[in-house]
């Protein structure tokens, strides 16, 4: 049950990140609400946080299923981090900013590192 819920969370996060980065004005949803403060958060910080949370979720799922970080998952997340920024060049009102791509990759690396450190700190069960 946990792995299927975890997988669903990953899919929902990818969908939300994709929607946020590939729509002309994602802040229209929160404008004039109690969440409109989100619009003033640094763009680079927001990119790093979003990709940090996404990669931590994806890589914790990888550890739960595979017991490691499969190469395909690392390259898929890295590719997604860069590609989604490049796709913004084709969205009206958006632009492709290399600094955002760097922030995406930095968040990806932070999420991966966070999960790796936590996995090393977690006690392993004793073998009989």
Describe this structure in a few short sentences.
This protein has 128 residues and is an all-alpha fold. It contains four helices and no strands. The protein has a domain at 2-10 and 42-121.
Given the structure, what is the number of helices? 4
Distance between the termini: 27 Å
Residue share in β-strands: under 5%
Written as H for each helix and E for each strand, in order along the chain, the element string is HHHH
- Dominant shape: elongated
* Backbone CA Rg: 16 Å
Uncertain regions spanning at least 5 consecutive residues:
none
Count every beta strand, where a strand is a DSSP E run of 2 or more residues: 0
Return the structural class: mainly alpha
Largest sheet: none
Average pLDDT works out at 85
Helix content range: 55-70%
Description:
The chain has a domain at 2-10 and 42-121. Helix content is 66%, strand content 0%. It is built from 4 helices and no strands.
Which characteristics define this entry?
128 residues; mainly alpha
């Amino acid at each position: 049950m946990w792995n299927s819920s975890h997988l669903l969370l990953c899919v929902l996060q990818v969908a939300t990140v994709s929607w946020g980065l590939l729509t002309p004005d994602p802040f229209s949803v929160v404008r004039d609400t109690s969440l409109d403060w989100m619009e003033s958060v640094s763009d680079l910080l927001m990119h790093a946080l979003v990709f940090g949370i996404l990669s931590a979720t994806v890589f914790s799922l990888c550890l739960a299923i595979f017991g490691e970080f499969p190469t395909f998952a690392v390259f898929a997340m890295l590719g997604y981090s860069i590609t989604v920024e490049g796709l913004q060049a084709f969205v009206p009102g958006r632009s492709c900013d290399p600094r955002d791509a760097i922030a995406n990759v930095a968040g990806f690396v932070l999420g991966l590192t966070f999960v790796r450190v936590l996995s090393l700190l977690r006690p392993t069960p004793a073998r009989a």
